[in-house]
Write a structure and sequence with these properties.
Elements: H1 10-24, E1 30-36, H2 43-63, H3 65-76, H4 85-106, H5 110-115, H6 119-137, E2 147-153, E3 158-163, H7 165-168, H8 177-188, H9 192-207, E4 226-227
Parallel strand pairs: 1-2, 1-4
Antiparallel strand pairs: 2-3
Helix pairs in contact: 1-9, 2-3, 2-4, 8-9
């Protein structure tokens, strides 16, 4: 589970909550905001890189066995060593294990670990996490199915906007692009709260014409920013 993040001050959180309340005052839409430190641990990706390092080591040994076996003998000054098939297999297993373990240790440094994650995988995992968060926190939790999730994942530098059925049937997915761009422009400059507020304002303006606020409208979802 991601650790708590410290990208926002209490004042920033209050500003985001107020922006949600203001945007919801224009329509019957319900906006949920989430900031995640990361959307996945990418353990499978780290294991894949480590396995690749081990396989490359084995491939190098297979391509140039005389060089590597001779290097082993020179390093250990083992003049009379006889390389039996069993000894070669033992050496290969040992080298592969060392390479695998070393690559896993290197990826304990998070900047390197996340740098090695391919961009399409990051995008897919952020999208999947946003969908799961939406289903838990917003989907079908409003009377008119007018919930919207604004999701920002800091480590991956990605964001998602997900709308419930009633809004999704009237607003094309491409329309959320302006809200996404407004958010990321600020976030790239380190102004996370300003980015969230910009996205919230855009979302409110998009939803309002389709779902004007009724006199008896009730606030069905919390306005506070959720941090995970």
């Amino acid at each position: 589970m991601p650790s708590p993040i410290n990208h926002l001050s209490e004042n920033d959180r209050a500003r985001v909550s107020k922006a949600v309340a203001d945007a919801e005052g224009l329509s019957s839409g319900e906006i949920v905001t989430i900031i995640a430190e990361r959307s996945d641990g990418y353990t499978d990706v780290a294991l894949s890189w480590s396995a690749a390092a081990a396989l490359l080591a084995l491939a190098a040994l297979a391509i140039a066995p005389d060089f590597y076996l001779g290097l082993y003998d020179r390093l250990l000054a083992d003049w009379g060593h006889e390389w039996t098939p069993r000894a070669i297999l033992t050496l290969a297993a040992g080298v592969a294990t060392i390479k695998f373990g070393a690559m896993m240790l290197l990826q304990l440094w998070r900047p390197l670990k996340f740098w090695l994650v391919p961009a399409p995988i990051k995008t897919m995992r952020v999208h999947d996490r946003a969908i799961r968060a939406f289903r838990i926190g917003a989907e079908r939790r409003t009377t008119g199915r007018t919930g919207v999730l604004v999701y920002l994942s800091m480590r991956e530098h990605r964001a998602e906007i997900v709308a419930d059925q009633a809004i999704a049937t009237k607003v094309d997915p491409e329309v959320w692009g302006d809200a996404m761009q407004a958010m990321l422009t600020h976030v790239r400059e380190g102004r996370v709260a300003d980015g969230m507020i910009a996205a919230i304002e855009k979302v409110g303006a998009i939803v309002a014409p389709h779902f004007p606020r009724a006199d008896d409208d009730v606030n069905e979802l919390p306005d506070r920013l959720i941090e995970v």
